[in-house]
């Protein structure tokens, strides 16, 4: 499969990878989450070239994750704000951060802690079941083919990775 074809996969992880598959995009989104919203702030904080930052910001706008807001009419300056679609990335960033805290931190400890504003305590956000609220742990849930793959399979449209995923999950469902 060629990289340009990743966005055509049925798999949501594959499609998302087509947006975040380079080394800058998630870092740019992170900076905006952390409050760096102006081009110059993002560019300086990451050390990214202006051309590359412009390219990535335009892609994030095109994908509907951020939008430009004019904050200075005199100098025609903008800040970049997250849309609802962009804000929905917060669990992804927290999960990546927690993985990094566990496996990539140095001897000084974790770089950022999360404080629950309702109780004021440092917390470690968890992935939990939307039905019963219990934490989701690896090995305590299974995969089921969803309607998106079923429909594409019934039309004979699955190929490559999508077809293999469909077959693997279908096989495990019948056991």
Shape: globular
Low-confidence stretches: none
Class by SSE composition: mainly alpha
CATH fold assignment of the largest domain: Arc Repressor Mutant, subunit A
Mind explaining what this structure looks like?
45% of the residues lie in helices and 10% in strands. It has 2 domains: 3-109, Arc Repressor Mutant, subunit A (Orthogonal Bundle); 129-175, no CATH class. It has helices at 12-20, 25-33, 39-46, 50-62, 84-87, 90-103, 147-154, 160-173, and strands at residues 66-72, 77-82, 114-115, 122-123. β3 (114-115) and β4 form a beta hairpin. The longest helix is centred in the middle third of the chain and has 14 residues, at 90-103. With 175 residues, it is mainly alpha-helical. It is built from 8 helices and 4 strands. The protein is globular and about 65 Å long.
Keywords:
mainly alpha, Arc Repressor Mutant, subunit A, two-stranded antiparallel ribbon, two-stranded antiparallel sheet
Compact description:
The protein has helices at residues 12-20, 25-33, 39-46, 50-62, 84-87, 90-103, 147-154, 160-173, and strands spanning 66-72, 77-82, 114-115, 122-123. The protein has 175 residues and is mainly alpha-helical.
Write the layout of secondary structure elements.
Blueprint: H1 12-20, H2 25-33, H3 39-46, H4 50-62, E1 66-72, E2 77-82, H5 84-87, H6 90-103, E3 114-115, E4 122-123, H7 147-154, H8 160-173
Antiparallel strand pairs: 1-2, 3-4
């Amino acid at each position: 499969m060629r990289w340009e074809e990743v966005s055509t996969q049925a798999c949501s992880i594959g499609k998302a990878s087509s947006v975040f598959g380079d080394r800058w995009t998630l870092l740019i989104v992170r900076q905006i989450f952390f409050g760096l919203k102006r081009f110059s702030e993002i560019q300086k904080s990451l050390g990214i070239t202006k051309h590359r930052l412009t390219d990535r910001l335009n892609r994030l706008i095109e994908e509907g994750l951020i939008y430009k807001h004019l904050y200075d009419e005199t100098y025609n300056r903008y800040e970049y704000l997250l849309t609802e679609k962009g804000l929905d990335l917060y669990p992804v960033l927290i999960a990546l951060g927690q993985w990094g805290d566990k496996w990539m931190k140095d001897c000084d400890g974790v770089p950022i802690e999360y404080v629950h504003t309702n109780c004021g305590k440092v917390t470690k956000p968890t992935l939990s079941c939307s039905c019963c609220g219990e934490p989701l742990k690896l090995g305590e849930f299974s995969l089921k083919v969803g309607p998106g793959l079923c429909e594409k399979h019934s039309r004979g449209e699955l190929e490559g990775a999508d077809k293999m995923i469909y077959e693997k999950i279908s096989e495990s469902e019948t056991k």
